[in-house]
Amino acid sequence: MSRVPIPRHYGLDWLRVAAFAILIVYHVGMVFVPWGFHAKSPHGADWAVLPMLAVNAWRLSLLFVVSGYASRALLTRAPGVGHFVRQRTLRLLVPLAFGVAVIVPPQSWVELVTQHGYAGGFAGFWARDYFRFGALGGIVLPALNHLWFVLYLWMYTLVLGVAVVAIRWRGLQAMFDRVFAGVALLVLPAAWLVCIHGWWFPMGYETHDPIHDAMAHLSYLPAFLFGFALAGSAPVLAACVRWRWTGAAMGIAGYGFILAVELGLDGGTPRWVYPLYGAAHAIQQWGTIVALIGFAERHWNRDARLRPMLTEAVFPFYLVHQTIIVLVAYWLIPANLPGGAEFAILIAATVAGCWLFYLAGRRIALLRPLIGLRPLPHPAHKAAR
């Protein structure tokens, strides 16, 4: 594989920042929709599912594509594949371990208290029950919860490291350029996703258990590898620009079908609709991803003063945001506020809490690796630079 450094793609940086901003709003929405979540508002509403479905299909796949692209850029700057894998392991597994041990436990405690009748306080729960490596009230502890994404990203990095060593990548890159520089960019990945969501797992769901999550791996690992190959392919980036409006039309059409089904439901979804619903999900998923990459390449590939801070803040925000949402929702339940007020308070509190977590953690050398930031440079190295 070529060691020519890949320049930073500011457009994909902005996509990553935007995707995580959407994720905060999405997880706040989980408090109000009828889907399972760790804290639930008494003011839930079925209609809230509809805006959630506008992003449900593509938000995580897009993040895996962007992560694959960033991995290619990091690998070209690393002394070797082994160094790249070691560095990524430290950057991912250390925050993952810290998150599972310290950040996630309040989520499990709130869920047990509000939904399973757990009567103990948080301190006792963390000291006696959380590290049981078994189930309590149907919840497996200790829990990954939202940090499954970090674990999967590390697993896919290991797969990538083995593939780069074992496979003649130059030939595969040339094949990728030829195949996906045309209309196959839209057709082939969409067809693969239709097989997943419309045929193999119609109306299926992800388990976020790495051993029993075939549907997620079949979707996210190819997305990660696609992003890795995309980072070295000017022709495919150009194809994303060329097909961006067609991709947007695919995304809108897929979402339109899903809306029509959801609005027409009366007493449950007929089984014959499952494959069609899954196929629409797949079309929305890939069309939107192509459109967003195309717009990022064509219109957003430019730097700005806040971009370095925002891109650095994304990982700490991701680590802590869901715990803030769950705790604030738990504290708001007794207040019995209107649903709109709850939603606004949750958004404001989550954004403020994430910024506080990031700005405090980035200044403390010992905390930086725990929240996914690079260590501060040694004073001698900083002076030399």
Protein model, in words:
With 385 residues, the chain is an all-alpha fold. The chain is built from 16 helices and 2 strands. Strands 1-2 form a two-stranded antiparallel ribbon. Strand 1 and strand 2 form a beta hairpin. Helix 1 packs across helix 13 and helix 8 packs parallel to helix 11. The longest helix has 27 residues. The protein is globular, with a radius of gyration of 22 Å. The protein starts with 9 loop residues before the first helix and ends with a helix. The C terminus is likely disordered.
In short:
With 385 residues, this protein is an all-alpha fold. It is 69% helix and 2% strand.
Query: N-to-C terminal Cα separation, in Å?
Result: 30 Å
Report strand order across the widest sheet.
Answer: 1-2
Write down the Rg. Answer: 22 Å
pLDDT < 50 stretches: 380-385
Shape: globular
How many helices in DSSP terms? 16
Beta content comes to under 5%
Largest sheet: 2 strands, antiparallel
Q: Estimate the helix proportion, in percent.
A: 55-70%
> Which class of secondary structure composition applies to the elements?
mainly alpha
Instruction: Write the H/E string, N to C.
Output: HHHHHHEEHHHHHHHHHH
Count of β-strands: 2
Mean pLDDT: 93
